[in-house]
Each structure stands twice: as C-alpha cells, then as structure tokens.
Backbone:
C-alpha cells in the first residue's frame, strides 16, 4: 500500500514562511496530478494547489502569488512553498496524488500536517 508522508508543518507568525514536503513510500506510476489540499476546523477540504507531470500548475485564488507548488518527478515528491502566511491559512494540509491504476483513476492521500499561523 502506497503511503504519502508529509513534513514541514508547524507554527509560524503572520507574514512568515513554511515549506511542506510530501514523499511517496514507493514509486507511483501513471501519475496525473500531485497536489495539496487543506481543511480548516468546521470547513470542507479545499484544493490549494496542483501540478501535472508536465509542470502545469493551478492555485486557489486565496493563495495565488503567495504559494508555489513544485515537484521532483524522479522522487515522486511534491513541495509547497508558502510565503506571506496569513491566519486564515491555518489548517491541516493534505498531500494528494491522483494516478491511473489500471483503467481507473485513484487518489492517494497523506495523513495531514498542521499549519498554524498566529496573528
């Protein structure tokens, strides 16, 4: 069973930066996208950023210009550089890999890492 392991969360003051990393426990083939989602208390999980195998990216409007997603295809690792953090960025951040398994798409999820931004 493939596992995604996140790291890099923590407590930071508003205006600060954090870098999240997510590594797969084994090589995942036929990846479609890798990305980051977040879930704040009492809210639904939302997409933060996603990147394709070819390097195309997409971001939630709330993080555009502040967050940058990148990936290392050889290592099946995805990163999220978060700058100019705001208290409203506080959430549990989840790594996601969306890949073909046979003829069906499948989602792999990390266990989540807490990001807390103090004002």
Residues:
């Amino acid at each position: 069973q493939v596992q995604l392991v996140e790291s890099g969360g923590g407590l930071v003051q508003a205006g600060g930066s954090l870098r999240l990393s997510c590594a797969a426990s084994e090589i995942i083939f036929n990846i479609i996208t890798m990305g980051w989602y977040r879930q704040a208390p009492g809210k639904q999980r939302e997409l933060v950023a996603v990147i394709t195998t070819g390097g195309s990216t997409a971001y939630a409007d709330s993080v555009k210009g502040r967050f940058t997603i990148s990936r290392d295809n050889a290592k099946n690792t995805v990163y999220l550089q978060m700058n100019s953090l705001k208290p409203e960025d506080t959430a549990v951040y989840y790594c996601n890999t969306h890949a073909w398994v046979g003829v069906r798409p499948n989602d792999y999820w990390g266990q989540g890492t807490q990001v807390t931004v103090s004002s």
Remarks:
- The longest strand covers residues 91-101.
